[in-house]
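Q: For a teaching session next week I want to show students how multiple molecules come together into a single three-dimensional assembly. I've collected the sequence lines for a complex. Could you give me the predicted structure tokens for the whole thing so I can convert them for display?
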Amino acid sequence: MPQLALPSRKEARIEVAGEDALIIYLDDFIDNNISKEISQLENRLAEELSDCLVDLIPSYVSLLVIFDPLVSDYYAVKQSIIKHLTFDFTEAITNNNIIELPVYYSPKSGPDLKNIAKTSKLSVDEVIKIHQEKTYQVFAIGFAPGFAFLGEVDARIATPRLATPRAKVPKGSVAIADQQTAIYPEQSPGGWNLIGLCPLPLFEPNVKPHIPYQVGDSVKFTAISKARFLTLGGQL
Amino acid sequence: MNNNSNVYFKVINAGILCTFQDLGRFQQGSLGLTTGGPADKAAYLWANRLLNNPANSPVLELSFGGLTLVANTFTTIAITGAKALLTINGQPKENWQSHHIKPDDEINIGFASQGCRIYLAVADGFLVKQQFGSASTVVREKVGGSNGLAISAGQLLAITKTEKKPLYRLAKKDVPDYNNSLTLKMITGYQHSLFDRYEIAKFFANEYQISSQCDRMGYRLTGTSIQSKISKMFSEGICQGAVQIPPDGQPIVLSNDRQTIGGYPKIGSVLSRDLDYLMQCSQGNKVNFEPISIHCAHNILHLAKAKYQRTQLLKVAM
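A: Of course. Below is the structure for the complete assembly, covering every listed component.
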């Protein structure tokens, strides 16, 4: 096993966000461990602050802690957070789920594939291959229920957002924006570059787990054929 | 859900935007779900309190008005929030008061003349199926009561038949005044200290106007442009009342149905009590901001809670 001990975050800062919220910045930059550390901190604070906790929102380098200001106060919540920040991250990383998601990559299911290939001077097949090579970290979930911000995409296929967002991005669209990649759980407006479709549901309000991943998990994409896509319940 | 669907209000007109709201949806941020909940929490709490309901009982939140309901049972209702003409069978009735309802009564709420969010609570609350621990409807997420949709004409809203309860009203002096000029106290937080001092001074010295883009998600303001030197930042969690400064320098105050994360710098967060008043404002109203510390904010919240608990409802002669 590789070295599991992580150093404590000396750069961590706690700032006021609002009357009912503090935000913890673990660092100014993302690195390989930060999402897992945020996820650990999220679990610890969920327990520590259970009396006054309203919500915890993890994202990239930060964790927003929303509490009930009529139950606890700024000092008490800050002290609880500090207690867990000085804790050395030496425990084994148990949270190392890798979620595999099938994708039907094609110019039809991913209308921006050709454009990405053209601007990056690669073939469509190379773009598809490069997108599958990496295991991506879940940095944040938001924008819409179940929408996961994954990174980081290989610089060769990183592509800026569309100048004009689409009014309707189809449900299940796999997309790229700069060095981020994501899947749209539902049809919505969106400005990311579409490269394929995932046939699996990514937000199920009536079934647990409601979403297949959480911040700190990893995601890997695997190409599937059109036939397989349709068998898995995908719709074109 | 206690699906006693033979006892209900039938919706004749649903107005511009009518949704179910309770206190909101909590601890679902890791799924990307926002909080929802009443846009004007103070008015919402009074509506339930006038009926002696638990604070989390689902009510109807009506934006701008235009609601007509017909009852098929005996119950009691209470109306709070924006100033709008309430009639029962065509007879004008007082807002910020509870009223008895009998079968075939037609309840009509006109359009708001001051404020824009109206709350209609019913004895024992509307019977709404919870999703993710709350009845609150967030239309953008298609989550919550009424299948995640706004309430529309023809729907039957399940309620409970109740015995005749004593009627109460809130004294005139305790009814909020939704006037047109509003100072929003803002807790200096998030990236506040990264803004240039001159930009911060400009922000607090100038008046802003509410643009046409104002809804339960947030209020976009127009006025003196505020520049930040923060060119690139990672998206992060957004709390209620957060004031985003996007690249065009026009502030956006985020509210109940806000996105949970976002990447624009924030200059602080509006105090919840003042956010209630902002959410009663509409296009063209003017606001300005005043800085306060988190300690001062907590004092205000505790005092407000004490005042709310101390305030006595007045019994209405029957």
